[in-house]
Amino acid sequence: MKIISLVGARPQFIKAAPVGRALRAEECEVVLVHTGQHYDNEMSAIFFRELEIPKPDYNLGVGSGSHGWQTGQMLIQIEEALLEEKPDWMLVYGDTNSTLAGALAAAKLHVPVAHVEAGLRSYNRRMPEEINRVLTDHASDLLFCPTQTAVDNLTRENITRGVHNVGDVMYDAVLHNIKLAKKSSKVLEELDLEPGKYLLATVHRPVNTDNEDNLRNILMALNTLNEVIVFPAHPRVRKAINRQGLHINSHIQLIKPVGYLDMLTLEKAARMILTDSGGVQKEAYWLGVPCVTLREETEWVETVQAGWNVLVGPDAKQIIETVNVFQPPRERPNLFGDGRASQYIAASLVGSEVSSQKNGARPPRFL
After folding, report:
1. Complete edge-to-edge strand list for the sheet that includes strand 89-93
2. Is 247 a catalytic residue?
3. Distance CA 114, CA 132 (A)
4. Computed over its alpha carbons, how large is the radius of gyration of the chain?
5. Would you write out the chain's pLDDT as a tens digit for each of its 367 residues?
6. CA distance 309 to 299
7. Dihedral sign, Cα of residue 337, residue 198, residue 236, residue 124
8. Is residue 120 classed exposed, middle or buried when 0-12, 13-18 and 19+ CB atoms within 10 A define those classes?
9. How buried is 44 (Cβ within 10 angstroms: 0-12 exposed, 13-18 middle, 19+ buried)?
């Protein structure tokens, strides 16, 4: 069986690594296509090295651009790869423009689509990621959900066939890589950090980086907090900070984006995490670190319901108050599967035959 595994952004590299291992263990031919949505060393190359992901068979080199231009360029080149490779499946991950472009290109060529991390919803259609999620799910034949909430979201949209709750592949990745991080990462020593004595902040979503008021309010809160703050800054954030002439106080360590193993180390040792990243919210939960989410909604509502994640939006006063008083409960229920989502996905793809009916894949053999 030949499968195109399509990636483009750092969260997708993390997801593709354990799924790729599982597919190769099932003796599948995996053709890795990298759109180039994230393309520099800090955002791309270091992840391939650390996660031992094979060199992409195709690197489309699309790079940055507006949503329409970027998605259009990807569509053209992904279609060419599909026509060349003639795969049995197109495998897409998450909710980026790469995800949507891969799903659309495959669906139009009648190549069945499998979506890893299907069923997520923020119910905020102003987020480009939300549009990508909805359209990809409705174009997919197999939908691999990380939680029961995701399954329920799809049911409300009348998508019930080909839907499987396999757990979260990012949990697989954390379990596999946290031990490697402990052995190899030196980031705490390099930044002169003590475990439990700093906050970790990440900001990258357009709702915060492209909105001047939101970014200003978040930085106002970070400047006010009387703690060491480590802030790996996405390139978009640096450009926005420079464009607005925003000030960064000396207790904030504004650093370049770090690799996956260093990021896991920074997350695990932080007293608290402030983020607008969905992946970081989950990693904080798995690592037992309180999380303050700099958005007004989240796809990962389970982490909020469990009491380990608080939504504060870009409100400076609320950010400061929450950081100073937030204490999660002792319990952290297992909400994201058993750490074998990748194996379940591989077994399902190998054992599935897509019917002519929409979303008509037969149940995976592991159920």
Report:
1. 58-59, 29-34, 2-7, 89-93, 113-116, 142-145, 163-165
2. no
3. 14
4. 20
5. 999 999 998 889 999 999 999 999 999 999 999 998 655 545 567 778 888 888 999 999 888 788 899 999 999 999 999 999 999 999 999 999 999 999 999 999 999 999 999 999 999 998 899 999 999 999 999 999 999 999 999 999 999 999 999 999 999 999 999 999 999 999 999 999 999 999 999 998 888 998 999 999 999 999 999 999 999 998 889 999 999 999 999 999 999 999 999 999 999 999 999 999 999 999 999 999 999 999 999 999 999 999 999 999 999 999 999 999 999 999 999 999 999 999 999 999 999 854 333 344 433 333 3
6. 12
7. positive
8. buried
9. buried
What's the Cα-to-Cα distance from 257 to each of 68, 214, 226, 233, rounded to whole Å? 26, 21, 23, 6
Tell me if residue 12 falls in helix, strand or coil: helix
Query: Hey, what amino acid is at 214?
Result: N
Where do we find the tokens 């009916």? 357
CA–chain centroid gap for 50, Å, is 17
Q: Give the three-class secondary structure for 264.
A: helix
Return d(Cα 351, Cα 345) in angstroms, integer: 10
Angle, vertex CA 230, rays to CA 224 and CA 231, nearest 5 = 85
Q: Tell the residue number behind the tokens 């990021």, with chain if given.
A: 263
Strand ranges in 204-359 using DSSP code E only, listed in sequence order: 228-232, 252-255, 272-275, 291-293, 309-311
Identity of the amino acid at 361: A
The length of the chain is 367
Chain centre to alpha carbon of residue 54: 20
Tokens of 214: 């939101």
| Distance in angstroms (rounded) separating the CA atoms of residues 50 and 39 | 16
CA distances from 26 to 30, 351, 364 (A): 11, 10, 14
Q: Which of 34, 164, 204, 234 is catalytic?
A: 204
Q: For residue 180, how many C-alpha atoms fall within 13 Å in the half-sphere facing its CB?
A: 13
Structure tokens at 104: 């659309």
Burial of 45 (0-12, 13-18, 19+ CB in 10 A): middle
